[in-house]
Amino acid sequence: MTSPSTPRRLGRLRQGGGVSDRTLALLLVLPTAVLLLAFSVYPFLQAARDSLYTIPVATREATWTGLDNYRELFRQESIRAAFGRTLIWTVSNVVVQTALGLAIALLLNARLRGQSIARGLVIFPYMVPAVVVAAVFRFTMNDITGIANYLWMKLPWVDEPIYFLSDPDIVLLVVTLVNCWKYTPFMVIVLLARLQTVPTELYEAARIDGAGARHLFWYVTLPWIMPVLLVALLLRTIWTANDFDVIYLLAFGGPLGATTTVPIEIRRLAFSQEDLGLASALAVVMALFVALASFVYLRLYHRSEAHLQ
Amino acid sequence: MGERVRSDEVRVQDLESPEAGESPAGRRGVRATASRTSRRRRPRLGLYALLALTIIATDAPLVWMFLSSLKPDTENAAYPPTILPKTVTLANYENLFQISQFGTYLRNSFLVASAATLVTIVVGLTAAYSLSRFRFWFLRGLGELSLFAYMIPPILILVPIARIITGLGLGNNLLALVILYSATLLPFALWVLRSYFNGIPLDLEHAAMIDGCTRFGAFYRVVVPQALPGIISTGIFTFNAAWSEYLFASTLMTSPSKTTLSPGLALLFDQTGVYSWGVLMAGSVLVTVPVILLFIVAQRQLVEGFGEGALKG
Questions:
Q1: Contact assignment for B134 to A9 by CB distance below 8 Å
Q2: Which of A43, A243, A276 has its CB closest to that of B157?
Q3: Chain A touched by B179 (CB under 8 Å)
Q4: Model's pTM, two decimal places?
């Protein structure tokens, strides 16, 4: 691992061109800086500004209303409910994906035959576009002709079909499972990459000390993958909380709002209710969570790096 | 980078148990007692069963998608359902191109994804090189800026983005998507490419420059070829993300002639139902096939590059 604090100047070997290191460094990053400022930072500042105004769509004439939109966020029942659903959705997704992802990564690392093909087959869903995921699972789980219900009804003790996507009581669970199908491979990829770097000496030392398989896992494997696991967990938390495509295209926020998480509520406020100010306030609150998480991410990353050196 | 080790070298099981057909007797003496080996053979079968189960759970839906795309709609609605198609037909694929402008969607997505990939790679390469080779305050700032951009979810900035794009006169113009995808995918490209550049010794560049290369020559002839695996994995990741993107494309592209694949496919179903499951599955197959091909071509680079890049600042 390269230490980020090593100076890496090419300075003295500079030839021709007549451009200083500083100018060259600046020129090289300029297009990136412009793109990021224009399409990430600026829009974000715009959203922050909008959140302090009430903006009727008809006239587009913004009226300063201070923190009214933020107060409204906590007042509206539908928004509070969206926060609750986001919490359930995020926690259940991350827990299932982490547990399954770790188990599958260990399985793929267990030196079985044909494991490189198996690896490809297992991580492939991560590459499947969200809209295809939605289409395929809407098909397999549709109420009338879906294969999922056909197989379910085949079970000897079952006599009621499941209305996977139209029963508001279970739809969030169903959508969660589908989302896990698509995103567990992310965990598998990063954990498997890490598992393959566990130093042999660690295992040898532990085995000489008489450690069994369970001990090896708890005292050697798990500590070694922990930094990566934590960071991957955090990334998945942020992305899941803000995920839009899979959940929206599978259930469109319904039935009866049962899958309306915060991102879908933002879209509803902005495009159906046409309350840009309120939608922006909600976006800003979510962004604050992201910023907080990013801060933790940076800390975790630096600590894990320091830990390894 | 130094700790990245070839997958074959370091394995838990390597130390624990001999492989079933691989001269177990020879290894047993060194590594495990006889009772241990016989106890382990059965768990190993269990592992294979688990692996098979995992593969079925992950890939059965995709196999089902493919099989259903070949069945006539009467068969897709039949009870009990058939597993393999009784009648194999391409009617769903023909229908798809008749009832929707799927050819246009394919073309649009291909153009946008290719252009966005090209821009991301070129812009990302130069910036990652600068981040890796120089230390200035503004580079540090850019590093943190790109982390922020990597984390900020598109839905949170969708409304202002729509306004900016309209303001630039790029509403309903594919160029808008190229710019947006490049901007949103750049942070990832930066992470991966910078970590590759950090692993390339400065001496290589110095040597090339002493031999008379300009700095650009050294970059182009020495650094870029060394970072090729990273460039490939970034390129594929970018292409796939742009090929699949839904939110920006569905909001910003309003006419059918500018629609890309994800919103185009989503037009084939809505809350209430679907025109034809067979046609929807045919469309899904066509959207997925290019992704499968890319994945097969570069699985290894992709997995390694991704494992590195996703987590390393």
A1: yes
A2: A43
A3: yes
A4: 0.83
- CA-based nearest residue in chain B for residue A3: B198
Q: Are residues B178 and B258 in the same domain?
A: yes
Q: How far is CA A304 from the centre of its chain?
A: 21
CATH number of the domain to which A209 belongs? 1.10.3720.10
User: Within a 13 Å sphere around the CA of A242, how many CA atoms are in the beta-carbon half?
Assistant: 27
Rounded-to-integer distance, Cα A135 and Cα A294, Å = 33
Give domain status of residue B82, yes or no: no
Contacts with B167 (C-beta within 8 Å, 6 or more apart), sequence order = none
Nearest-CA distance B123 → chain A (Å): 6
Cα–Cα distance for residue pair A284/B114, rounded to 1 Å: 33
Whether the predicted pLDDT of B161 surpasses 50 = yes
Please state the domain count of chain A: 1
What is the DSSP-derived secondary structure letter of residue A129? -
B130/A112 touch (CB, cutoff 8 Å), yes or no: no
- Interface mutation target, options A36, A198, A201, chain B, most CBs of B under 10 Å: A36
**Residue B115 contacts residue B103 (beta carbons within 8 Å):** no
Record the tokens describing residue B71, joined without a space. 């069945």
CATH code (residue B295): 1.10.3720.10
Rounded distance, CA A202 to CA A207, Å?
9
Global ipTM: 0.84
**Domain total in chain B:** 2
C-alpha to C-alpha distance for A128 and B241, rounded to whole angstroms: 10
Could you read off the pLDDT of B138-160 as tens digits, one per residue?
A: 888 888 888 888 878 888 889 89
- What's the distance, CA B73 to chain centroid? 32
The domain of A108 spans: 53-283
DSSP B261: H
